[in-house]
Amino acid sequence: MFMALSLQKKRNEDLSDGQLIDDYLLSGKLDSLGILYGRYIDLVYGVCLKYFRNRELSQDAVMDIFEKLVTELGKHKVENFKSWLYVLTKNFCLMKLRHSKKDIDKVINIEEHAYLFMENDFRMHPVDKSDINNNEVLENCIEQLKEDQRNCIRLFYYENKCYREIAGLLKMDEKKVKSHLQNAKRNLKICMENNDEE
Asked: Which domain holds residue 128?
């Protein structure tokens, strides 16, 4: 019996994400879902830690997100599980922050850190593109930015600094940091689009 279960688990671990989703949706058993979630648990924990900046809250959130996954997965047609899970995790964190911002003094203040809602969507900004072919173009475009814009972009995206930290490091007002980031993103977008056309 134990041998049969071990073989089944081994077979399940060899399945693709899509096959594990199908297996879970057909059988309703959590084994396949557990294996699938296990593949990306570090990603989920990392996203939670980024938003909550608290290990215990992030660990609790990892468990809560698995429970949410049990009900949500059947409601959506998921083609890229990793991307879908990232969005699910991010939305979970943002909702949790909204509901508990008065009670949890260790988490990020949402009003002060509005960039969580505006700046970090990896699909929206050129600095977040992971396409290897764009890396050299992106670096060239970043080098063409004005110094303040270039510094803000590098600190925000590559070193994961928040507005306040950047303002402190560069000795400038937070509003200036926001302005430099917005202008830098716009200039990068134009620069990269021009490169695409060439």
From this structure: 115-197
CA atoms of 17 and 142, how far apart (whole Å): 36
CATH number at residue 21: 1.10.1740.10
Question: Residue 118: phi, psi to the nearest 5?
Answer: -105, -35
Please give the Cα distance from 21 to 15 (Å, whole number): 10
For 31-38, what is the mean pLDDT?
A: 90
Q: Which of 33-37, 104-108, 155-159, 166-170 is least confident?
A: 104-108
Of 181, 185, 147, which is closest to residue 163 (Cα–Cα)?
181
Give start and end residues of each alpha helix (H) in 40-173: 41-52, 55-72, 81-100, 115-118, 132-144, 147-153, 163-170
Question: Which residues, 6 or more positions from 166, have their beta carbon under 8 angstroms from its beta carbon?
Answer: 151, 152, 155, 156, 177
pLDDT tens per residue, range 150-196: 998 888 877 778 888 899 999 999 889 888 888 888 888 888 877 76
